[in-house]
């Protein structure tokens, strides 16, 4: 059967999905996906998986995808981060039988993505991305999709999307924020960029950004013309978002914990993180339970804390405290599922000598990197601690030593590695060639030599033992008797003894 493409793929395989749960690191696991599907989600993504780790680690594959196969959990798209065409293809081939499509993450703006050189930090390497998409599209039995962020320039964003479509991308998710819009500087997503991309390509487009209520979903589809809308943080704070409901927090929390128990195992840190999101507003008031939620060691303990929060909220409702809550900045009482809106960055207090441009620059960007000769009070608290431990600590990125890349994967290589590789690649090569690498603590040759010596020693001992047994079996009772010197029996006469001695040959 031919592989479905573009709109045919969206209509038949994805069943014209409009309500989509985003790929979220450690947050869109099976239990959460099933909960979201019960409350209106029509398509879900796996958490972002690291392609290189997925290829080399069978446990990682089992824990993050293979163990999570569930008939209810379809349609499903598996997302990878990668920066190497061959590695991405290998990972996708291992995953394609467990999902309906493979997605390449080109939108993650976090520092870990910058260090690993993936996500949005690949958006300027069009030749590499084209090669990755084209190779995957040719070799995979399922479609390849992409999730991107926009450029500030509308025209560049359009050309970027068209390049991905031409390379073989069959569905495009556009997050309407730039690479720098994250954390405190998240800001508003640009639906204008999303609409421009939708008009410029001939494949389905999903929109991402500014989705907090079902009304936002409908408005986004109407304004941009996209085929579907993806939600991340809105879904985390209210998994019933796509139903258009804002239920009590404990209703969603208790249902989620039931799903977790029905589909074990589920990593405890994932469950805890979900409860922190769901109970976010309530935990601002009941801080003691926030500490308890952070300390418990099992799902039952998390359920107990959630139950205590429910009881406290119900007591507040019984006392009529919801009237007081209306005076707060929240649109609903704190025990109702509702989005969390990040507060804008605080305006700095300036003296009379400061210029307006300097104020604006301080608000619109993060703290600049400090010079090495700057005063100690310009450093962050963390860096001041490091400098107190090491006065010669260098914080200037330009003067820091540049890491030499591994010849195979591009990660930093070991400083004294005999193969000039990172530890992961070195381990594979050393194992294959039965070699040692003292830098990475690998002793395959030493262990092999030691094992060989032990085997030779054991073999010599066995041969000596066998030779001794053969010697023992070859000697007869008569032979043994002849070796014994004659004994004088008490009933023998002197003549008989002399006769015996004369008859014995010399």
Give the uncertain stretches in residue-range form: 323-327, 350-377
Give me the side-by-side strand order of the main sheet: 1-2-4-5-6-7-8-9
Biggest β-sheet description? 8 strands, parallel, barrel
Mean pLDDT: 85
User: How much strand content do the residues show?
Assistant: 5-15%
The total of beta strands comes to: 11
- From the N-terminal CA to the C-terminal CA, the straight-line distance is 99 Å
Structural category: alpha/beta
Give the helix level as a range of percent. 40-55%
The general outline is globular
Secondary structure tally, helices: 23
Radius of gyration: 35 Å
Describe it.
The structure is a single chain. With 506 residues, the chain is of the alpha/beta class. Residues 323-327 and 350-377 have low confidence and may be disordered. α2 (30-38) crosses α12 (249-262), α7 (126-139) packs parallel to α8 and α12 runs antiparallel to α13 (268-278). The chain is built from 23 helices and 11 strands. The chain has helices spanning 6-13, 30-38, 51-56, 58-64, 85-95, 111-116, 126-139, 154-167, 191-200, 214-224, 233-237, 249-262, 268-278, 280-283, 287-295, 299-318, 322-325, 356-364, 381-389, 423-433, 444-474, 477-483, 494-503; strands at residues 19-21, 43-45, 49-50, 76-81, 101-106, 144-149, 172-175, 205-208, 228-231, 436-437, 442-443. It starts with 5 loop residues before the first helix and ends with a helix. The strands form 2 sheets. An 8-stranded parallel β-barrel has the order 1-2-4-5-6-7-8-9, surrounded by 6 helices. A two-stranded antiparallel ribbon has the order 10-11.
């Amino acid at each position: 059967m031919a592989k479905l493409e573009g709109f045919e793929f969206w209509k038949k395989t994805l069943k014209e999905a409009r309500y989509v749960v985003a790929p979220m690191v450690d947050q869109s696991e099976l239990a959460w996906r099933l909960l979201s599907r019960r409350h209106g989600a029509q398509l879900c993504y796996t958490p972002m998986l690291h392609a290189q780790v997925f290829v080399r680690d069978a446990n990682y594959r089992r824990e993050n995808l293979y163990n999570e196969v569930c008939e209810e959990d379809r349609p499903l798209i598996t997302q990878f981060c990668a920066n190497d065409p061959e590695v991405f293809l290998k990972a996708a081939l291992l995953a394609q039988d467990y999902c309906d499509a493979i997605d390449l993450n080109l939108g993650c703006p976090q520092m870990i993505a910058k260090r690993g050189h993936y996500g949005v930090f690949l958006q300027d390497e069009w030749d590499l991305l084209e090669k990755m998409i084209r190779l995957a599209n040719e070799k995979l039995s399922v479609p390849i999709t992409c999730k991107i962020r926009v450029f500030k320039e509308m025209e560049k964003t359009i050309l970027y999307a068209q390049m991905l479509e031409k390379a073989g991308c069959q569905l495009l998710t556009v997050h309407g924020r730039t690479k720098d819009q994250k954390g405190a500087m998240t800001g508003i997503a640009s639906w204008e960029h999303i609409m421009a991309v939708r008009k410029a390509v001939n494949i389905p487009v999903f929109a991402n950004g500014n989705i907090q209520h079902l009304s936002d979903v409908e408005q986004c589809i109407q304004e941009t013309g996209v085929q579907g809308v993806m939600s991340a943080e809105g879904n985390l704070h209210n998994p019933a978002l796509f139903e258009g409901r804002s239920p009590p927090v404990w209703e969603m929390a208790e249902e989620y914990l039931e799903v977790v128990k029905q589909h074990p195992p589920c990593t405890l840190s994932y469950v805890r993180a979900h409860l922190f999101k769901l109970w976010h507003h309530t935990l601002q008031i009941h801080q003691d339970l926030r500490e308890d939620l952070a300390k418990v060691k099992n799902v039952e303990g998390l359920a107990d804390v959630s139950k205590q929060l429910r009881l406290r909220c119900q007591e507040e409702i019984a006392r009529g405290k919801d009237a007081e809550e209306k005076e707060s900045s929240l649109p609903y009482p704190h025990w109702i599922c509702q989005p969390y809106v990040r507060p804008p960055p605080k305006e700095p207090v300036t003296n009379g000598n400061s210029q307006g441009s300097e104020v604006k620059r301080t608000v619109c960007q993060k703290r600049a990197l400090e010079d090495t000769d700057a005063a100690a009070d310009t450093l962050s608290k963390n860096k001041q601690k490091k400098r107190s431990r090491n006065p010669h600590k260098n914080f200037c990125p330009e003067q820091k030593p540049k890491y030499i890349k591994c010849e195979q994967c591009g990660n930093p290589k070991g400083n004294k590695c005999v193969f000039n590789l990172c530890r992961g690649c070195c381990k594979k090569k050393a194992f294959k060639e039965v070699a040692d690498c003292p830098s990475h603590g690998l002793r395959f040759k030493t262990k092999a030599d030691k094992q060989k010596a032990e085997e030779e020693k054991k073999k010599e001992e066995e041969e000596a033992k066998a030779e001794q047994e053969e010697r023992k079996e070859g000697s007869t009772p008569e032979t043994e008797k002849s070796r014994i010197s004659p004994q004088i029996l008490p009933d023998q006469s002197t003549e008989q003894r002399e006769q015996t001695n004369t008859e014995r040959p010399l």
